[in-house]
Design brief:
Rossmann fold, binds nicotinamide-adenine-dinucleotide, globular, six-stranded parallel sheet, single chain
């Protein structure tokens, strides 16, 4: 039997629809428009595309979108002053600094200068600590999207064995914290893990966030397991073009898994949708209004 394919594109559209509904109610009932500010330093083409998409989707759900583009040679003091302005701007509820930053800028310092209540990426050290101690926080967008899909697939995740492959601060670690919060038994695997296939074989839930094309093989997967593929890897094609693949070898895993996310069209589209969700959540919290249901943990 072949796995259920989890359609991230359709799921993300549902999340955006929910966000748009909340935004409309905030406007109608309270005269509040949630605002997201994105800061982009330099001309990195991939970052420019992400920022453009974020702005477009933010406007589409009825929120205010502001972009601050600055030259690569901006000083740290200038960038910190910009963040300070955004921190004190009441029309802005979410601030995102597009990473990576040029080498002369200290990314940790910059991220930790954002007001944690407006840190819609969930990377501020306060939000990391809040998530790690099971308190209300801003949750990083990609793992939040993965959790939404897992909840949708399973209902309760309590007691399930989850293996997260990859221990990055933006995906692997917060993913493991979220799964712990759902009462999974969580194993974090990484580049030094011994006998990774055997570790993965015990998992009811596998989340792969590694950055290695098609690494996870079908014979690593416990029959019926749910496989969430966060990886985005570009492979060269014979005709000179490229194609996107995940960290999971889809063709060998799909016949064994119970459910699986494809690449593209799985986790990817959920990330921006969750950024919008976080912005509306931040706006509700800032105004002491009830948080939207189903858009955060
Ligand atoms: P990262 O490079 O920061 O971390 C990779 C992790 O993989 C490390 O913790 C490392 O220990 C582990 N690893 C490396 N080789 C391994 C191996 N052979 N076996 C087991 N573990 C190994 O990466 P990241 O930022 O977490 O991103 C991971 C992947 O997810 C990348 O492909 C990235 O493009 C993608 N990504 C996608 C989204 C999205 O929106 N879908 C968002 C963020 C990242």
């Amino acid at each position: 039997m072949s796995a259920t394919v989890i359609d991230g594109k359709a799921f993300a559209a549902e999340v955006r629809e929910k966000v748009a509904g909340h935004v409309a109610r905030l406007k109608a009932d309270h005269g509040i428009i949630p605002g997201l500010a994105v800061v982009l330093i330099g001309e990195d083409p991939a970052s420019s595309v992400y920022v453009r998409n974020k702005g477009k989707q933010t406007r589409e759900v009825g929120m205010k979108s502001v972009e601050h583009r600055r030259d690569t040679d901006i000083s740290e003091a200038e960038l910190l002053a910009l963040i300070d302005d955004l921190n004190t701007d009441d029309s802005i509820h979410g601030i995102l600094v597009q990473l990576p930053l040029p080498d002369h800028l200290d990314a940790e310092l910059v991220i930790n200068a954002i007001d944690p209540a407006k840190d819609v990426d969930g990377f501020h050290i306060s939000n990391v600590g809040l998530l790690g101690t099971g308190q209300k926080s801003m949750v990083p967008c990609t793992p939040l999207g993965c959790l939404m899909m897992l909840r949708d697939q399973h209902g309760s995740l309590s007691g399930l064995n989850a293996v997260v492959i990859g221990r990055s601060n933006i995906v692997g670690k917060p993913m493991a914290q979220l799964l712990l919060g759902e009462s999974c038994t969580v194993t974090m695997a990484h580049s030094r893990t011994r006998d990774l296939p055997e570790v993965v074989r015990r998992a009811d839930i596998v989340v792969a966030a590694v950055g290695r094309p098609q690494m996870v093989q079908g014979d690593w997967i416990k029959p019926g397991a749910t496989v969430i593929d966060v990886g985005i890897n570009r492979l060269a094609k014979e005709d000179g073009g490229t194609r996107l693949v995940g960290d999971v070898d889809y063709d060998s895993c799909a016949p064994v898994a119970g459910a699986i996310t494809p690449v593209p069209g799985g986790v990817g589209p959920m990330t921006i949708a969750c950024l919008l969700a976080n912005t509306v959540t931040a706006c509700c919290r800032a105004n002491d209004l009830p948080e939207p249901e189903g858009l955060t943990v």
